[in-house]
Amino acid sequence: MDEVEVVVAHSERATLRVGDVFLKVDADQARIDAEVEAISLAPVPTPQILWCKPPVLAIAALPGTTLGRLGGPATGSPAAWAAAGAAIRKLHDAPLPPRRGRAGRSSGALAAELDDECDALVATGILPADLVARNRQVAEAALRPWTPAFTHGDLQIAHVFVDGDEVTGIIDWSEAGQGDALYDLATFTLGHEEHLDDVLAGYGTGVDLEVIHAWWSLRSLLAVRWLSEHGFDPFAPGCEVDVLRARM
């Protein structure tokens, strides 16, 4: 019997690995339903669903390895990153799924949430006021009208698997749905700006770099306090706070 590996765990959800099976335990059945639906609709390689008995979803492991993780070294050739960009473009060009995803929050609601979070970051002393103010200014470019696309919603590089220069699968679809395509691209390249050109070589045209930079700031500002409260370290080298400092 293989040992049980805790892949990630916090108060909202946990993922365990036993051999070649991943067990995702989620307190919100809507996220499980969204993941099952997105996997069935996505036109890119996805993991096989073995069974689903809420609050648990069992999926098969994917071949290959991830391109890295936030705060750690990135791996893969430029061609592998370009292949990931091409897969992301294929997803974004697919017919829209029925529900709105994490990347589909309205600009008004997002601006209000961002302003509240910026105030909290400064009031609690988690981040200095000048760092927050500068990144709030940069983030403004993301608060604009956008054309809905089929988005993943949490497209961290740790969620994309490759074998050589081929994408073998994309995992963790619980935040998928209609949303802003540039949110996905920004999430995928967060903390690994050096690979953005490779990704865009595969993705193609129609990308506003100012908006990518804005999403880096916006996503990081919204994440810092949550990560700190759930046992993660956004101050670790290469992580969210370093992303914010790079905009100064």
From TrEMBL:
GO molecular-function terms, A-Z: transferase activity
Aminoglycoside phosphotransferase domain residues: 32-205
One Pfam family recorded for the sequence: APH
First and last residue of the signal peptide: none
Protein name: Aminoglycoside phosphotransferase
